[in-house]
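The data are passed on as follows:
___
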Amino acid sequence: MSVQSFEFDGPQGYRLAGRLELPATDRPAGWAILAHCFTCGKDSLAATRLARALAARGIGVLRFDFAGLGGSGGSFADTTFAADVEDLVAAGRALAADGKPPAILIGHSLGGAASLAAVADMPGICAVATIGAPFDVAHVLHQFDPASLQVIDTEGQAEVLLAGRPFVVRKRFVADLARHDLGARIAQLRVPLLVLHSPRDATVGIDNAARIFAAAKHPKSFISLDDADHLLTRRSDADYAAAMISTWASRFLPATQP
């Protein structure tokens, strides 16, 4: 296996930074895009381990930073959930233009919600897998201190601590979350869906998985991640999720050329 840098233009004019995890074969089983969790980035433990584990099973993976995070341009303060969805669609176009048309979307946490919202605008996608994804994108506000939300509402923005790091969040971000009806998007999926979730997820409860699964039409599958935490901090949990995704996705991947 090997890894390559992969940069592309985002829809807002920013350069977005990614990494391609390449299988050790000239004939990959298929290509996937991995959307990271809220504020995490492409180099988070979960994103890195998932991508490499999938590459080890023959699936090439693009993991990239949403605008305002990691090596990508832009400011996090100017981002919205809708902008993340647009970044994901742009990643699909860029990967296809590079001769690696993506067939699978894999999203972790809020990245899973973005994947569910983006698939309608990505006609080449054959299957979607979510890991610890929320059913309602506004669920992300549960990570905010109530006092910070009040400041955002009255003053237009506030600096908030997310995963121990400070981020400026503006009212535009909060308002945008209310615009999205993810349940309707899920009901309109025209591709197979795999929902992976831990019953012990303390960040995004297992009830979210149940609502996503209930809203989706067949073919759909659910896999329990047992006692994994939300960020898949144990390598064994990331490896297990990758093994389940690659096995499940093999039924839906199109034939690839060398």
